[in-house]
Automatic annotation (TrEMBL):
The chain holds residues 339 to 604 of 604 of the full protein. It is found in: Cell membrane. Residues 41-260 form the Histidine kinase domain. This is histidine kinase.
Amino acid sequence: LKVTYTPIKLKEENMYGMVIVLEDVTEQKRLDQQRKDFVANVSHELRTPLTTIKSYLEALEDGAMDEPELARRFLKVTRQEADRMTRLIQDLLQLSHLDSRKITFHKQQISLEPLLQEVADHFSFQCKERCISLTLYTHSKLPQIFADRDKLHQVLDNLVSNAVKYTPDGGSIAIVAQTDTQGMVEVGIADTGIGIPKKDLGRIFERFYRVDKARSRSLGGTGLGLAIAQEIVHHHEGEIEIDSIYKKGTLVSFTLPPVTGGKKDE
Ligand code: ADP
């Protein structure tokens, strides 16, 4: 609580008084802390791959270069780390554009099914290789939605890639699209993966929040995928939620308003 006192004196009446302002700064402090944590996280996330790149380059300089097999391996690691930095910067830029509302959404009337099929096809090879069954179920009378196709593609890509990343070989993933009780179009991505402990669920949409940092990094994650998906869904006036049973599986679902007719491109 921030308290400010302003003494006042009413000359004519020879009276004295005081204006006391009590201001609840809890929210402001929380936002301040969030901003500081974010900067610290970004610095840390960028420094980690840089440190790796530097140490591998030093090893190459110190002689690893003369062993072609070793050199090839070290170069591969440095490239992977550079790729991770690129991904991280792309994700950060996108979040910053979403925050400042600089991104224009090209919303139009679209059918969800072909988009879901496209995303499922994109991951089908990877899933087959790891014996993960990936199935798409769509309700036959799914209404059209009013959405930015590319952005929605990204939401689906982030969520399905998480399901693939965090599901061990031999598991299964289902993408389900239906209308919910309120008439909203609902897309759910369910997996039989490693799950998320209950204590982490409430913070999982926060930027850089990860259950297992090392695991996420080793799988190429940036820790921003869910945050970006949430921003995009909110820009479509939808809701996104996650439910999970630790060591059993996860369900991420989001809603989108159906086309009610008469909407124009935004
Ligand atoms: P990341 O790049 O780390 O995957 P995300 O923002 O996409 O970042 O997800 C944040 C964290 O949420 C992940 O690091 C992981 O701990 C957890 N998570 C997300 N999706 C799943 C899932 N389907 N199964 C298990 N854990 C998940």
